[in-house]
Amino acid sequence: MDADTARRSLTEERDRLREMGAWSREHEPAVAVQQEGALGQHPGDYGSEVEETMERQGLADESERQVAEIDAALQRIEDGTWGRCRVCGQQIDDERLEARAQADTCREHADQ
């Protein structure tokens, strides 16, 4: 994968993630989850509200984390270091970059 293709792909993914994160934040419950049993609320309803709130917050947080990874990859493209492993400096194989253009390590150092 070349840097121009990666830039386009990463930019599209960043836009998608930002939109998803914004949607999650816009659709958070208007009222904070109340204390269990407040106003005669059934405990099952309370649990559902808590779960939904946590899922939306988690989605928004994960979107932000992924956008930060993409921004870092776009910066590496600008710096001319994209496609090289940050640990050993070797070229990252095309298959890995096509699957995950924001990868900053080769397969050998993927866990680092």
UniProtKB/TrEMBL annotation:
Q: What is this protein called?
A: TraR/DksA family transcriptional regulator
Q: What is the lineage of its organism?
A: Bacteria, Bacillati, Actinomycetota, Actinomycetes, Pseudonocardiales
Sequence segments annotated as region (Disordered): 26-52
Q: Where on this chain are zinc fingers (dksA C4-type) annotated? A: 85-109
Q: Which species is the source of this protein?
A: Actinomycetospora rhizophila
Q: Which residues form a coiled coil?
A: none
InterPro entries assigned: DnaK_N
